[in-house]
Amino acid sequence: MTTESQIILRPGRNLRGSVSLPGDKSISHRYAMLAAIAEGPSRLENYSTGADCTSTLRCLRSLGVKWERKNDADAGNVVEVQGSGPSLTASVEPLDCGNSGSTIRMLSGIAAAQNFSTELAGDESLSRRPMQRIIAPLTAMGAKIESDNGNLPLRISGTLLKGIHYAMPVASAQVKTCLLFAGLLAEGETIIEEPLRTRDHGELALRAFGVTLDRKGNETRIRGGQRLRGIDARIPGDISSAAFFLCAAALFPESQLTITNLLMNPTRARLLDILLQLGLRISVTQLEEIHGELVGTVQAEGGSLKGATIAGADTAALIDEIPVLAAIAPFTKQGIEVRDAKELRVKESDRIASIARNLRAMGAQVQEREDGLRIPGSQRLHGAELKSFGDHRIAMAFSIAALRAEGETMLRGSECAAISYPAFFATLQQLIEN
Question: What is the pLDDT of residue 3?
Fold first, then answer.
């Protein structure tokens, strides 16, 4: 059991420096899972250091996958995976997915196609998150799944799956990837329609491992029975982690920040457009494509912050970045409004409620709505005792808000930042001038 820790955060005067971030979580999860069912070895450089991606590796080892971690001064956190094809080995124990929704949802698509039964479980937070959104389509493909009224644990009886045509009721990249992985291991063709375009790391990762799939509009088709081949890849820096440092830079008019080897995938880089709209000055250099993913160097300089509305497709594209955008909203001139974000209610915490509670504790005015928030601008915040609610993105978001608050802020439950970025607070301290 993890003991709750706390950290004292003090106002900053400026932000300046250069940073290279651990590998993108979304890509790390997908590459590790595909490497496991590929033929031959894969070398994954700059693999995410977050606890969630370690949960994926731990589950794969329980399924008989051989991998080892190496530290390389130039390549960062390296994971070498020995793939042996699509058939895995039954685990004698339930798979512990920890806090990782990505692990349990995407790995379920692979587990459903095995010729054995698998039980998947997680921590208290993960056990509250909805799993019916993968249970329904996987069941339609032929899998037999038992659950606790749509929650964990999941008991999946693997079988020979059949391809389906499935219209997703909720936009979710995790669910889409789950079904693409299941479709890869199924008979026939699987067609997935999503209501809004979500991040396409699953599609790009499959292509990197040699899979052919077709995408037209919001519809993706994959033919079952294709073989994967191992790859050597350097995973670009996590843009969702970069969001915290970019938003910190936005708080200081004289800030200068450089982030190298950063993921620039168009389905994720909408964050940069919003920050430009707010008033942060951003330039991108050294842009290149690696295994289908765009990677570049981002340079940011502070300016005067205006305001923004995040709604519709933007909400889906920015779902992980909304907490930190909301945390800096009081320091903008016109404020920030978030709509169509009901999905935030079922993340690691109820993020809408968590954001509103912490902002109010710091003296901010906030309108909380069922599907979002309206946070007026031109507000002054004071230091306060805040909670992370066991949610890594809430912990990191409010460490950024604290940089412009008056007085000290105490953040309880700060250890949960390690779920995605163990070195977050140390990196932030290196960049901040007090």
Answer: 62
Residue 288 neighbours by CB distance under 10 Å: 11
Q: How far apart are CA 397 and CA 208, in angstroms?
A: 33
Q: What is the dihedral of CA 133, 322, 336, 375, to 10 degrees?
A: 80
Residues, the chain: 434
- Nearest CA to 205 among 63, 23, 22, 33? 33
Range scoring the smallest mean pLDDT among 36-45, 67-76, 137-146, 149-158:
67-76
- Name residue, tokens 């997935």: 192
Predicted TM-score (pTM) of this structure: 0.94
pLDDT at 1 over 60: no
CA atoms of 187 and 166, how far apart (whole Å): 15
* 3-class secondary structure, 341: coil
Find all residues with CB under 8 Å of 255, minimum gap 6, and list them.
14, 15, 16, 248, 249, 300, 301, 302
- Single out the catalytic residue among 123, 320, 340, 350: 320
Helix (H, G, I), strand (E, B) or coil at 231: coil
For residue 252, the number of C-alpha atoms closer than 13 Å in the C-beta half-sphere is: 25
* pLDDT tens string 5-19: 999 999 999 999 999
> Rounded to 5 degrees, what angle do the CA atoms 317, 367, 380 make?
95
Q: 314 catalytic, yes or no?
A: no
Domains along the sequence of the chain with CATH: 6-22+236-433 (3.65.10.10), 25-234 (3.65.10.10)
Q: What is the rounded (10 degree) CA torsion for 303, 306, 309, 314? A: -10
The C-alpha angle with vertex 349 and arms to 122 and 359, in degrees rounded to 5, equals: 155
**Which letter does DSSP use for residue 153 in this model?**
E
Q: How far is Cα 209 from Cα 180, in angstroms, rounded to an integer? A: 13
